């Protein structure tokens, strides 16, 4: 590790600690989920939080947004939400006799997509260009989105009433899927004491801003990835395409997301280089939501997580 690289990743780790501690003033006992959100933010990815209602998905996203002094928009996805509500629409101005573009909810540094799978697939697809290319095309004109840009979407399990399954192309644009889980008894008691009398978000102040986040993202991009680790990441993703237990393997975008997420995880750990363990530990969160098990695998009680775990174990880990 170079002295300069060590100093740079130290800056990332210290900033992440400030943000994490700020979020933990509101979200009790969910350090791992908070670290995942910070990792995705610094890797320039998008985060999908899937869990049952009421466990704090939206509160986590709002607390993350409040901790960063940047533009924030929330989009409540409902069955009657239109694509133009997300991207924006051109409106004719009677005075100037010209069309004017009115930006939609996607125009912000941090976009909270609440219950994304309650909107129709047509409206969900309005996010595809925004998430991948950081731009919006409306009526032949292209509008760039603010940087940094991150979508944090929440969704209920597909078994819940009134939900739609996210299209494969939409899932593939989320770098990581995670879940909140139920709180521990201690955390739930602490939540009752802090949330019962007032909204804890009211007193929460930002601890960083968009300019600093952009600098941290640039530091993360400079984390070194050796050739063996690159080949290991490619081998992990390729294994999902060869198996007969998946009808849909992971895409090349998944490989890119895996490396970028691992770089951010290494920087958060204070390293300016990648280890094979960084890649292996993130293979589940980064790859699982993109994979579709076959009917035969499902009938034999094999779910995506178990198949992926078995596949990862078969891929040789590079020597140090």
Please explain how this structure is put together.
The structure is a single chain. A five-stranded parallel β-sheet has the order 3-6-9-1-10. The chain has a two-stranded parallel sheet with strand order 2-11. A hairpin with a 2-residue loop joins strand 7 (135-138) and strand 8. It contains 14 helices and 13 strands. The mean pLDDT is 88. 40% of the residues are buried. The protein folds into two domains: 3-218, Rossmann fold, CATH 3.40.50; 223-314, Helicase, Ruva Protein, domain 3 (Orthogonal Bundle), CATH 1.10.8.80. The chain has 320 residues and is of the alpha/beta class. Helices cover 47% and strands 16% of the residues.
Architecture blueprint of SSEs:
Layout: H1 3-23, H2 31-42, E1 47-50, H3 57-67, E2 68-69, E3 72-76, H4 83-87, E4 88-93, E5 98-103, E6 110-114, H5 121-124, H6 127-133, E7 135-138, E8 141-144, E9 150-155, H7 168-172, E10 176-178, H8 185-195, E11 208-209, H9 210-221, H10 227-242, E12 246-248, H11 252-268, H12 276-287, E13 292-293, H13 295-299, H14 304-314
Parallel strand pairs: 1-9, 1-10, 2-11, 3-6, 6-9
Antiparallel strand pairs: 4-5, 7-8, 12-13
Brief descriptors of the model:
14 helices, single chain, 320 residues, five-stranded parallel beta sheet, alpha/beta, globular, two-stranded parallel sheet, Helicase, Ruva Protein, domain 3
């Amino acid at each position: 590790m170079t002295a300069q690289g060590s100093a740079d990743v130290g800056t990332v780790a210290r900033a992440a600690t400030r943000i994490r501690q700020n979020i933990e003033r509101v979200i009790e006992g969910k350090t791992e989920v908070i670290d995942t959100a910070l990792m995705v933010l610094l890797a320039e990815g998008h985060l999908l939080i899937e869990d049952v209602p009421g466990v704090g998905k939206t509160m986590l996203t709002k607390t993350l947004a409040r901790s960063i002094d940047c533009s924030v928009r929330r989009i409540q996805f409902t069955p009657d939400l239109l694509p133009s509500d997300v991207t924006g629409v051109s409106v004719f101005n009677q005075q100037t006799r010209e069309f004017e573009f009115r930006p939609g909810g996607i125009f912000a540094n941090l976009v909270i997509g609440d219950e994304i799978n309650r909107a129709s697939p047509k409206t969900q697809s309005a996010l595809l260009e925004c998430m991948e290319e950081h731009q919006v095309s409306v009526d032949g004109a292209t509008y760039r989105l603010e940087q940094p840009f991150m979508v944090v979407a929440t969704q209920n399990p597909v078994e819940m009433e009134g939900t739609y399954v996210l299209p494969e192309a939409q899932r593939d644009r989320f770098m990581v899927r995670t879940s909140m889980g139920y709180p521990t008894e201690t955390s739930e008691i602490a939540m009752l004491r802090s949330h019962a009398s007032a909204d804890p978000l009211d007193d929460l102040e930002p601890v960083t801003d968009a300019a600093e986040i952009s600098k941290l993202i640039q530091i993360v991009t400079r984390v070194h990835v050796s050739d063996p680790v690159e080949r290991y990441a490619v081998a992990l993703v390729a294994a999902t395409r060869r198996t007969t237990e998946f009808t849909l393997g992971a895409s090349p975008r998944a490989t890119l997301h895996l490396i970028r997420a691992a770089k951010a995880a290494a920087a958060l750990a204070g390293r300016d280089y990648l280890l094979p363990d960084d890649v292996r530990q993130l293979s589940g969160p980064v790859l699982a939501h993109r994979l579709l098990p076959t009917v035969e695998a499902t009938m034999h009680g094999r779910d995506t997580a178990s198949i992926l775990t078995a596949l990862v174990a078969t891929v040789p880990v590079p020597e140090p």
